[in-house]
Amino acid sequence: MATYYLIHEPALFQNGILRPERWVVGLVLLGLGVSAVGYPVYQQRVRGDNYARMANQIEALAGPYPIYTLNWSSVGLSVVALIDSRHFDRPAIVSPPSRFTDGLVIAFTPRDLPGNGWAELEGQAEQLMLICRGKVCADPFFHSGRP
Q1: Is residue 52 within 8 Å of 82, Cβ to Cβ?
Q2: What is d(CA 25, CA 122) in angstroms, rounded to the nearest whole number?
Q3: Phi and psi of 118, rounded to 5°?
Q4: Is the distance from CB of 70 to CB of 96 less than 8 angstroms?
Q5: In whole angstroms, how far apart are CA 115 and each of 44, 85, 112?
Q6: Would you give per-residue pLDDT tens digits along the chain (147 residues)?
Q7: Of 6, 24, 130, 147, whose CB count within 10 A is highest?
Q8: CA distance 129 to 118
Q9: Phi, psi angle pair for 104, to nearest 5°
């Protein structure tokens, strides 16, 4: 529509308020303002804090035992990245070996892997399933059996 007026009514854009210099600069400033305020608020309330809380809770539940992952969703990968970035001295979080006895698995569903117990972590719109084996399951946070 603006192209039509630019071609057929050029006087509007040459002398008036619709001069391209004015509205292009205005739109750029509006976009910068919304980005400067909106993006940090979104990161803080939706992404950053939720993932950090989940990562803290997983680390507290696992204690000294290894953490593995079978969750390749954006939520699972973000939480795993947060945990890995905090502990460069530990091995990276990977898929669980076939016969591990003690540990915690970040899973997509509780049926991804047989375990002694399971629990669900929820953020605002995100959720992770945790499957435990061995001594980690002693925590009352975990439900025994299968869901």
Answers
A1: yes
A2: 42
A3: -150, 160
A4: yes
A5: 34, 27, 9
A6: 666 665 666 666 666 666 666 677 778 888 898 889 888 888 777 776 788 888 998 998 888 889 999 999 888 898 999 999 998 888 889 999 988 888 899 988 877 888 778 888 877 667 888 888 888 888 777 776 555
A7: 130
A8: 7
A9: -125, 135
